[in-house]
């Protein structure tokens, strides 16, 4: 893939079921957790890479990073004590393709990742996925029950398909977590 190239439909379909590496290290401030990679992200090999996804702009506008990173710069998250992973590792066209069993298994794997990396905070990006993965059917946005010493926060899904949240509102929600994670 060249930086200027665009995937064909065949390229995207061939990316189904690919996985992306977890970007993490021990002792992170926040480990952000998407639902699962989309086909575009799997094609590029970078988290939240689809044009229109608001993760990188929201991360910057909320004050987590001093500048907006491009998806290809995902390893720079570690510089600021941040990381990124997914509840379900395999890529799909939409999160609706994931079964409840996949989400629950992903929640179990995520608990193991939290135990391994010991982040101060786990931020799950999508309340519906959080509910299914962690058996919390009434969960809402904001702070949840911790996993051991790791505090858990649920944020809105940054996908451009999530029309309930503008970029400005999404950045406000991310900033609430940043404030909780770093203090006022």
UniProtKB/TrEMBL annotation:
GO molecular function, one term: hydrolase activity, acting on glycosyl bonds
Keyword Metal-binding found: no
Signal peptide feature range: none
Keywords, ordered alphabetically: DNA damage, DNA repair, Glycosidase, Hydrolase
Family matches, as InterPro entries: MUG/TDG, Uracil-DNA_glycosylase-like, Uracil-DNA_glycosylase-like_sf
This protein's record includes keyword DNA damage: yes
Xref: Pfam families: UDG (PF03167)
Residue ranges occupied by any Uracil-DNA glycosylase-like domain in the UniProt entry: 21-178
EC number: 3.2.2.28
PANTHER family: G/T AND G/U MISMATCH-SPECIFIC DNA GLYCOSYLASE (PTHR12159), G_T MISMATCH-SPECIFIC THYMINE DNA GLYCOSYLASE (PTHR12159:SF9)
Name of the featured protein: G/U mismatch-specific DNA glycosylase
């Amino acid at each position: 893939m060249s930086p200027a190239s665009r995937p064909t439909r065949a390229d995207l379909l061939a990316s189904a079921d690919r996985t992306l590496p977890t970007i993490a290290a021990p002792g992170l401030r926040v480990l952000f957790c998407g639902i699962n990679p989309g086909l575009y992200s799997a094609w590029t090999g970078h988290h939240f890479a689809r044009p229109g996804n608001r993760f990188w702009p929201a991360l910057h506008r909320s004050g987590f990073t001093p500048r907006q990173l491009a998806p290809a710069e995902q390893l720079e998250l570690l510089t600021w004590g941040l990381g990124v992973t997914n509840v379900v590792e395999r890529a799909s066209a939409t999160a609706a393709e994931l079964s409840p069993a996949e989400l629950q298994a992903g929640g179990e794997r995520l608990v193991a990742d939290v135990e391994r990396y010991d982040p101060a905070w786990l931020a799950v990006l999508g309340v519906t996925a959080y509910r299914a993965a962690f058996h919390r059917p009434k969960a809402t946005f904001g702070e949840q029950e911790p996993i051991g010493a790791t505090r858990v926060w649920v944020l809105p899904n940054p996908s451009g398909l999530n029309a309930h949240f503008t970029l400005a509102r999404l950045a406000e929600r991310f900033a609430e977590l940043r404030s909780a994670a770093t203090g006022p």
